[in-house]
Amino acid sequence: PSILLDCDPGHDDAIAIVTAARCAELVGITTVAGNAPLARTTYNALVMRDLLGIDVAVHSGSERPLVAEPKFAAFVHGESGLDGADLPAPTTPLDGTDAVRFIVDSCRRTEGIWLVPTGPLTNIAIALRSAPDIVSRIAGISLMGGGTFGNRSSMAEFNIWADPEAASIVFGAPTRIVMAGLDVTHQFQATPERIARVRALPGRLAEVLADLFVFFAGTYLRRHDPGSIGGPAVHDPLAVLAVTHPHLFERVARHVVVETAGEFTRGMTV
User: Fold this and answer.
1) 141: which strand partners?
2) Can you tell me whether residue 190 is helix, strand or coil?
3) Of 40, 42, 43, 137, whose CA is between 20 and 30 Å from 17?
C-alpha cells in the first residue's frame, strides 16, 4: 500500500517511520507540532530519514492547532521530542514547508494513498477542508488517536486532545477511517526483553532505537501505576500496521465523534 505519513516525532512516531519505510510504499512524510514544537518534530523526521537512508520527501506543516493553544509532551518525549539517544545531525535538507499543499498534491496525483496521521490532526483537517475532492481519491485515513480511555486526561488521548477541532473535522470526513486507539496501543509495549532484542541487532539504527526506547520507558513507567504496564506503549506504528498488516487486528465498526466543548471531556472520542 501507498502511505503518506503525517507525524510529530516522538519516540513512537520514529518507529512508525521505520515501519512505513520497510513495509509500505512511503509517498512522503509531513510534520506537525505535537510531541514537541514543529521545528523539533521536523528535525527529528529528517534525522529518521537519514538513519533509514530513504529517499522520501519531508515537508513541515502546522505549528499550532486550529483553535487551541499549542501544548507539547516534553514530560514523555523530552524537550527534543526524541530524548535519550545521540542522534546524528540531519545531512539532507527539508523539501518544503507547506505540508498541506504536499498532501493535497500527492492525493490528486496518485489515487489510493492511505493518509496515516500519528500526531495531532491539524494538517489533515486543513487538507480535507481546503481540498474536499481528495476524500474520493484516498484509500482512507488510518490514524493513531483516541480510545476508550485517555492518557492526557481521564477521557482524552494526547493527539485528539491537542487539537480536538481538527480531529472533529477528520472524524467527520466521508471516507474510510481506521482508528488505532489507546485500547489497542497499550497492548503493544516496549518491554525490557523487546528492547534487548532491538539492541542486539547490528547497525546504528538499532543502537539509536534501543537508546530511545530506554528513555521512553523511563518517562512512561513513572507516569503509570507500578505493575500496570510492562513497558511504554508504542502507539504510532499500529496506524501503519493497520494498513500493511490488517490481519493482525480485530476491527469493529463504530460511529465516532470528538468532544470539543466539554469542560472535563474535551478531546474525548465518543
Assistant:
1) 115, 177
2) coil
3) 137
Q: Is 52 helix (H, G, I), strand (E, B) or coil?
A: helix
59 is catalytic: no
| pLDDT tens for each residue of 11-57 | 899 999 999 999 999 999 999 999 899 999 999 999 999 999 999 99
Cell numbers at 205, concatenated: 539504527
pTM of the model: 0.95
The CA distance from 163 to 235, in Å, is 18
pLDDT tens-digit readout, 99-125? 999 999 999 999 999 999 999 999 999
> Would you call 19 helix, strand, or coil by DSSP?
helix
The C-alpha cell at 167 is 480531529
DSSP state of 180: E
Let me know: does 116 contact 21? Beta carbons within 8 Å.
no
Backbone angles phi, psi at 134, to 5 degrees: -70, -20
Strands (E), the chain: 2-7, 25-31, 58-60, 114-117, 140-144, 177-180
Q: Give dist(CA 68, CA 159) in Å, integer.
A: 13
- Give the contacts of 218 (CB within 8 A, at least 6 positions apart): none
One of 235, 245, 247, 255 is an active-site residue; which one?
235
- Give which of 142, 123, 130, 138 is closest to 59, Cα–Cα: 123
Based on DSSP, count helices (H) and strands (E) in the chain, helices before strands.
11, 6
Q: Which three cell numbers stand for residue 227?
A: 505493575
Q: d(Cα 23, Cα 15) in Å, to the nearest integer?
A: 12
- When computed from its CA atoms, the radius of gyration of the chain, rounded to whole angstroms, is 17
